[in-house]
Amino acid sequence: MDDKKIIKDNCIVIKPFSEVTKFHGHVCPGSAIGYKAAEAGLNELKSGSSQDEEIVAIVENNSCAVDAVQVLTGCTFGKGNLLFKDHGKQVYTFINRNTNDSVRVSLNDSFSVDILAPQLEKLRGAVNSGIATDLEKADLKQMTEDVSQEILEIPYNKLFHAEHIEVDVPKKARIFKNVKCSKCGEIVSEHRAIKLEGEITCIPCFKG
Ligand SMILES: [Zn+2]
Ligand SMILES: [Zn+2]
Fold first, then answer.
1. Which ligand neighbours the alpha carbon of 202 most closely?
2. Phi and psi dihedrals of 159, rounded to 5?
């Protein structure tokens, strides 16, 4: 994409939240938080979504938020430019390979879904344990949508702390040769195959 298409009124043009919901399946505060994190990242890096591997996202959780990051940034598990660190933290690092700029986006500690929607947790508990009435179920849906919308309306710099940092740019994804497992006969990518006494095995066969 050229700069004219991605920058309008000095802002990066990003996909609407409805695209995230189409991919993710439901509206939730988590995907709204991820949407804002990706918005922060793309704006700070002055970048559009990643067609190839020009943007890298390092996510430190595997919550609903990450689906929004994938949709907005084009950093996906399949392309190899979405890297997961299992820290359980609302922290996202975005790297622009073209400009060598990187930004670390972390959720402010003052932010809390419970403060925005104090009844949400209790209602969700009732619905999950199967004791909720139809009215309570409808309430939960409405409350979830309202709080998600509220999150989307918060300017990203009020929601997150964004800091430009220097990081080692991760290597681009490589394409590996395939080999055949001597035990199950299935094809396995060479870099995951195990060579033992001249025999090639896949990881599940190796583990027995
Ligand atoms: Zn969700
Ligand atoms: Zn095998």
1. 2
2. -90, -35
Residue 74 structure tokens: 């084009």
11: phi then psi, degrees, rounded to nearest 5: -120, 150
Residue 124 CB-density burial (10 A; 0-12 exposed, 13-18 middle, 19+ buried): middle
pLDDT confidence of 4, banded at 50, 70, 90? Answer: very low
List 94's β-bridge partners, or say none. Answer: 57, 103
In Å, what is the CA distance from 139 to each residue of 42, 101, 132?
A: 34, 44, 10
Distance 29 CA to ligand 1 centre (A): 7
Domain positions in the chain are: 3-165, 178-207
pLDDT at 103 over 50: yes
CATH fold of 178-207: Wheat Germ Agglutinin (Isolectin 2); domain 1 (3.30.60)
Give the distance (Å) from ligand 2 centre to CA of residue 41: 41
Instruction: Give the C-alpha separation, 205 to 207, whole Å.
Output: 5
User: Is residue 189 predicted with pLDDT exceeding 60?
Assistant: yes
pTM greater than the 0.90 cutoff: no
What's the pLDDT at 7?
Answer: 61
Strand 82-84: give its sheet, edge to edge: 82-84, 55-59, 91-96, 101-107, 160-165
Q: What is the CATH number of domain 3-165?
A: 3.30.1330.130
